[in-house]
Amino acid sequence: MLVAGVTLAAGVLSAPGTAAAATDVLSVDFAKSTGEFRGGATGTLYGFGDDGAPTQALIDGAHITNTSQKAPYGTQHPSGDAIKVEDGFFHKHGRDMYIYVQDYYPDWSYHGGVRPGDTRTYRQADGTYTNTPNGVWDYLEVVEFVTEAVATTSKRPQDYVFIPFNEPDGGNWYANWGTLKDTFLADWKATYDKIQQVYARHGLGHARIGGPGDTRWQPERSADFLTYAKANAVLPDVFIWHELGIDNLRTFRSHYTDYRALEKRLGLTPMHVNITEWGMLRDMGTPGQLVQWLSIMEDLKIDGQTAYWAYAGNLSDNSARTNSANAGWWMFKWYGDLAGSRTVAVTPPALNTVDTLQGIAAVDKRNKRATVLYGGGNDPVTLSLSGLDRNIFGKRVDIEVREITLAGAEGVAGTPRVVKVLDGVRLDRGTIELNVPTYDRYAAYQVLITPEQDRTPVAAAVWSTSIEAENTTLTAATVYDQDPLAGGGWKFLASGGRDVGSFNRPTSKAEWTVTVPRTGRYRFQVIGGAPGVPGRHALFVDGANPQIVQYTADLALTDVQRWQYRGSSEVTVALTAGTHTLSLRAGLDGISRLPNSDITLDKFLLTDITDGEPTAYPASTLRYFGGARVTYDRAKARGHAEIRGDRQRADAYIQAWETGYYDVGLDYRSTGRTDVDVTVNGRSVATVSAPRAGAWRSTARLHLSQGINEIEIRSKRGLLLQQLTTTRVAAADTAAVTIEAEDTIRHGAVSITTHADSSGSNASGGRSIGYVGLGAANTFEITRGPGFDKPGLYDVAVSYANAELGGHHDYNPQVIDRRLEITETGGGTAHGYFRYTYAWNSFLEKTVPITLTTADGPLTFGNPQAYAPDIDKITIAPAVIGRPTTVPRR
């Protein structure tokens, strides 16, 4: 059955320079299936650094199914060894671990770009060598010990895919096909056979191999390669090439069509395809760009991996800080949420066109939800939706539209806001024509359609507003156009297509007149770029009461991109109901500038946090495993998730703007007495219970880490979960204990560093400690005291700096993740890897969970093998405080 004609009237915000009358139509036919959801387009190249960088919550939430990493013994990058990161990758959703075997070599392009000969003798046990020939091609020895390492040390060697050659056409050994074709083909066979020999001697069966791995679609080379591989029984298991550049959005599908035609012409069984590098700088972290690429790959049912343009360990610029989401991460998460669905036909205004409206749509019959993801293009959007089956969705449906907007590569994006709802739309013959209340060129949108729920969908539950920096009243500053087509895509995009720079005079300011609905506390967020150093601005309210806006450093990649790699800064401001002028200034007095205040400004956001910013995660948006599902068949529990038994669970990915305590509430129904286990970031931290059948709200006060937190819900006796809600309770943070690093007991070479105020550093109190580690004696110690003087589960939030680089690369900073170990005297040890912070005086925060088993055993921090990060302060907090409560719910 089709749906009754319904139009959602709404105002539309057009992109700059766009005619308001123009409208793009995206048509979705939910009755026309295009196959099982593949979900492989959000793979990454070097997206993983070391264990915990990115965090498990970011990995799991992004639903990463495939990645290419450095080979064991590899020296191409300081981090990202496949064996070292495989546990995190395979933890939930990881399927295929690809490795670049040539990453054994430290330089780009490998071995000076010249094919090695026989000048070395390698030691197979550890990859070391002597400069003497031994009658064996040097690279074949590398292939053998890399494959041997996977075969003998990986827990899942059958889930690896070996890539013997990366971009062989791009200057790496075999660029001249006319003279080196035969050499490459012979080398392909030699490496293929060697990999299979190693797996065979360990009884592992067939080793999967991918190739040829060209820089782009190369029809002549591909034909020669496949013809030879077929004749010599060395066909790859995965066919690989790269799609890099702006125009590839136009040509991608034609390349794929040509490849499949080539297979058919050669009489080959179709192979799986992985585009192991796709996209440009401009695409990363930008939902409206990402969805265009994802829609192509999902339509073709192939896999792909985001290109490596910046540094390892941040999902290719699709995550922020140490544990936070940028807008790109939410796009990954939405895409991963489609697992278990079947995709359906989507008709955009145009295919094979650069920067146009594109979408992905799917139906999850088990959980009775239909989803449309879309973005791109310059015009307002009308969705023409048809084909919803009344046998699945019933007579009426609820519709929710969520939006995620560009927040910069390093800027924090909060939980996507609901911008439009329709409650109880009747399903008859016809279509739904859905106009979005706002439309942002670089944003992406999620439309979720379910049977009518008992929960009433609500739009804009928390008041928030925003403005582009270029639309504020500017003094001593310049608006710059940021053309998304400029520079061949080697740039990070600006919200609205423009930003504000040259904010470098004492009188520079940006003023925003805004009306707030009530007296209370508001979060003021600035999306902007602090190139390579931390900086400061002053925020005035109605010309008075200035407070410092502190920025951490952002990546200074090149002279151009250093102004475009944008992060975010957040500050809380008290406002009375009514109209105010918020003035962000480069100086406090108009005479002198604040330190490093020459910061690019992109966008301002203001959000009401007076009530703790309660954020709901309804059952229709969660992920389900082990047989758990959303049901609409239970009286008074339509749209609730049925979770029962040891194997069933629901996963929620919730965002915390700051580390601290939150009331995590569960709204549910039970058919009798029941218990519910709540796991946060892999630890069971609380059990809530209901005494009898009924409707309940259970609340536990939990410590959450800044950024994304993975919450798992289980219940042996069973429950019907309606939603999970988080509410910030800042007053409860007094239960945590903060110790300045300079006030700890220092041992060995550990010393205090004082950061001059002129440096713009965000170090608490202007001091930190360094030279921790690189020897067992170089530690610092915290004695136990009130607040953490009992055994139990704790979070240790560490404010740290790490700007260490190792090795050289032509265009990538070779970042090193530093390890910090925390040892309880008389107890155990916990550790974490701490990612790059861009500057030694710029401090980020990472949380390390620890279980303390004594009441008074001091905590020692260090790293006997290498340097730990520099430390600003340590906050120790119980994972849960108080007793969970349960009250009846209407």
Write a compact overview of the structure shown.
By secondary structure, this protein is mainly β. It is 13% helix and 39% strand. The protein has five domains: 6-36 and 345-461, Immunoglobulin-like (Sandwich); 43-115 and 142-337, Glycosidases (TIM Barrel, Alpha-Beta Barrel); 465-608, Galactose-binding domain-like (Jelly Rolls, Sandwich), CATH 2.60.120; 615-730, Galactose-binding domain-like (Jelly Rolls), CATH 2.60.120.260; 736-880, Sandwich (Jelly Rolls).
- Considering DSSP H and I runs of 4 or more, what fraction of the residues is helical? 10-25%
CATH topology of the largest domain: TIM Barrel
Radius of gyration: 27 Å
Query: Order of strands in the sheet with the most strands?
Result: 1-19-16-2-13-14-15-20-17-18
How would you sum up the global shape? globular
The CATH superfamily of the largest domain bears the name Glycosidases
Enumerate the spans where pLDDT stays under 50 for 5 or more consecutive residues: 1-20
Number of strands: 52
Keywords: Signal
InterPro entries: CBM6, Galactose-bd-like_sf, GH
Protein name: CBM6 domain-containing protein
